[in-house]
Write a structure and sequence with these properties.
248 residues, alpha+beta, Glutaredoxin, five-stranded mixed beta sheet, membrane
C-alpha cells in the first residue's frame, strides 16, 4: 500500500509535532488573554455569579443618594462615570425615569467609578460631590447628564478632553443651582471629596465592577438578558427586577 501523506503538512512543510506545538501555544495565549481581560478592572474581588454584594460595599453612610426610600426599602446602587456615553444613554433611557417613578419607594445610590479612558470623568465626579457638600448633589448630577453633549462630547461626537470647556460648564451649572462658587472650587479639590471618589472606586472593584454603568438591586447585579435589543426593553427588565424586590 502506498504511504499516505497529510495534504496540509505536505503543502506547508510542517511536521505534525510542530503543528501540535503551535496549537498548544495558541490555546495558552487565548486562555491567558481571557484572564487578563477579565481582570482589567484593577484587581477588585470578583463576585461569584448570583452572589449578593454586601450592603456595606454598595453604600457608605456618606454615599450620595438620589432618592431615599427609607429603612427596609429596595436599594438600587449605580457605579457610574459621568463622561461614559453608555451611562448617559442609561440615564436618558432608564434611570432618570426610574428615579421619578419610584421616588419614595426605593433608595437610589450613586457611586463614582470614573474610567481612565474618559479624561473629564473625575472632574465631573468632583463637581457632583462638591455640589453635594452644599446640599445640591442631585441638581449637579442632573445638570451633568442633561447637558452631557455640551461638556463631555467633542463636536465630532467623540469623548472630549477639553478641560477648560468642562470647567466653564461646571461653573455655569454651579451658578444655576445656586452654589457658592468659591466654596465649590475649594471643595472640588478637597481631600474629603477626592477620598470619597477613591473609596467609591475601591468599593466598585470589590463588587466586581469593571465598566460603567454597573447597577445593583438589593445587592444583585442587574444584567439584562440577551433578548433585550432596545433601551426600552432593558428598562422593562430593570423595572421588573425592582418590582419583584418590592413585592417580597
Amino acid at each position: 500500500m502506498p504511504k499516505t501523506t497529510n495534504p496540509v503538512t505536505q503543502k506547508s512543510g510542517l511536521s505534525v509535532n510542530i503543528i501540535l506545538t503551535l496549537i498548544v501555544v495558541l490555546i495558552a495565549v487565548v486562555v491567558i488573554g481571557g484572564v487578563l481581560w477579565i481582570n482589567r478592572g484593577g484587581g477588585g474581588t470578583q463576585q461569584q455569579p448570583g452572589a449578593a454584594v454586601p450592603a456595606e460595599v454598595l453604600r457608605k453612610p456618606d454615599s450620595s443618594v438620589l432618592t431615599e426610600g427609607g429603612e427596609g426599602k429596595v436599594v438600587v446602587s449605580e457605579f457610574l462615570d459621568y463622561q461614559c456615553p453608555a451611562c448617559w444613554q442609561y440615564y436618558n433611557g432608564i434611570t432618570k425615569q426610574v428615579e421619578k417613578d419610584y421616588a419614595g419607594r426605593i433608595t437610589f445610590v450613586a457611586r463614582n467609578f470614573p474610567l481612565d479612558m474618559h479624561p473629564l470623568a473625575r472632574p465631573a465626579a468632583q463637581a457632583a460631590e462638591a455640589a453635594g457638600m452644599q446640599g445640591k448633589f442631585n441638581e449637579m448630577y442632573h445638570a451633568l447628564y442633561d447637558n452631557y453633549q455640551g461638556w463631555a462630547a467633542s463636536p465630532n461626537g467623540e469623548v472630549s478632553s477639553d478641560q477648560q470647556k468642562a470647567a466653564a460648564a461646571f461653573d455655569e451649572f454651579a451658578r444655576q443651582i445656586g452654589l457658592d462658587l468659591d466654596r465649590f472650587h475649594q471643595d472640588m479639590k478637597s481631600p474629603q471629596v477626592n477620598a470619597k471618589i477613591d473609596r467609591d472606586v475601591k468599593d466598585g472593584e470589590a463588587a466586581g465592577v469593571s465598566g460603567t454603568p454597573t447597577l445593583f438591586i438589593n445587592g444583585q447585579q442587574f444584567s439584562p438578558s440577551g433578548n433585550a435589543k432596545t433601551y426600552q426593553e432593558v428598562a422593562d427588565q430593570f423595572r421588573a427586577q425592582i418590582d419583584r424586590e418590592l413585592a417580597k
